[in-house]
């Protein structure tokens, strides 16, 4: 059962702040009883695995 959730401008700003600078990762929004209660941000690092371990470089895209 789904219900439309109204999001205050304050929460939209918080979500935007969590998205800034993320190249690889997840921004997860937790909702309880129709209200946003938590925002989790998990960042990932991706590496070029075709090169030897000593020259592995982080991808920039």
From TrEMBL:
InterPro entries reported in the protein's UniProt record: DUF2292
Organism domain of life: Bacteria
Name of this protein: DUF2292 domain-containing protein
């Amino acid at each position: 059962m789904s219900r439309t959730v109204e999001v205050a401008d304050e929460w939209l700003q918080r979500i935007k702040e969590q998205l800034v600078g993320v190249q690889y990762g997840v921004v997860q929004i937790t909702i309880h009883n129709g209200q946003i209660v938590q925002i989790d941000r998990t960042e990932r690092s991706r590496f070029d695995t075709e090169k030897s371990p000593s020259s592995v470089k982080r991808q920039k895209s």
